[in-house]
Amino acid sequence: MGIKSFRPVTPSLRNTTVLTNDEITKSSPEKKLLAPLKKHAGRNSSGKITVRHQGGGFRRKYRIIDFKRNKVDIEATVIGIEYDPNRTSNIALIEYTDGERAYIIAPVGLKDGDKVISSTTADIKPGNCLPISSIPVGTLIHNIELHKGKGGQLVRSAGMSAQLMAKESKYAHIRMPSGEMRLVSIEAKASIGQIGNLDHENISIGKAGRKRNMGIRPTVRGSVMNPCDHPHGGGEGRAPVGHSGPRTPWGKPAHGYKTRNKNHRTDKYIVKRRNKK
Length: 277
Fold this sequence. Notes:
The protein is mainly β. The chain contains two helices and 17 strands. About 5% of the residues lie in helices and about 25% in strands. The chain starts with a strand and ends in a 5-residue tail after the last strand.
C-alpha cells in the first residue's frame, strides 16, 4: 500500500500521512464474525488505573480471527481483504467449500479469488497453512504456533515475517523478526508468506486528536513534574535526570532494564537472543 500526504492548509495536515488502502477490497465486516469489545480505560476490577494513558477512542468491534486453521484439507476462496481496527495487519475473509466463512491474517500477494488451504500437502504459497515439518527450510512464515493446536501466537503484525532456518529431530530453528533464534516444535503450524500492510510503520500520526481517536491519552514528561510525582521532577528550569539512567515514575530503570525472569521455563527454547551476536 502507498502513503498519502496532504497539502499543508493546517499545521496538523503538514505532517499527517495516511495509507491509501490499495490492498483493501471489502469495506464492511462480516457480521457473524464480530464480537463486542468493552473498554476498560486502563482500569482493573477495583476501578484503579493500572495501565496509564488509556481512555476514549472510537467504538469498535472485535473481528474473530481463525489463528488455528483447524479446517484441514478443505479449500477456501478469498472473498475480500478488510481493514481491522484491532491490529496493524489487514485481514482476509475466506469462504470454505462447505459455506463456512472465517478471517485470516492477510499476507503479501493474497488477492480476491485466490485459493488457500490448511493441509500437510498444501503448496508453498501465501496464505496456506502447514505443519512446520512440511515447510521447506528458508521459507518466510507468519502466524506461528508455540504449542501444537493452540493457534498462532508469533509474528502477527503488519510487515512481519520469520524464517525457517533448520529442522532437527523434534524442533525447528526459526529466526524471529527481532533476530532471535528460537526452537519451535515441528508439529506446530505456521502460515506461508510475509504479512501485508508493509507501509504501516511509515505512517506519521500528525496530530494529537488522531492519537486520542486511537484511545491513547497524553503522556506527560517526568522532567516537568514535581519530585514527589516522578524521579526526574524538580529543579530550577530544565534539569538533567540526575540518575545513572532514565527512571519510571516508580523509580525503576526505564531503558535497557530486562524484566524477563532469569530462570524462565522457556529459556531452553531460545538458541540466540536478539541482542546477542
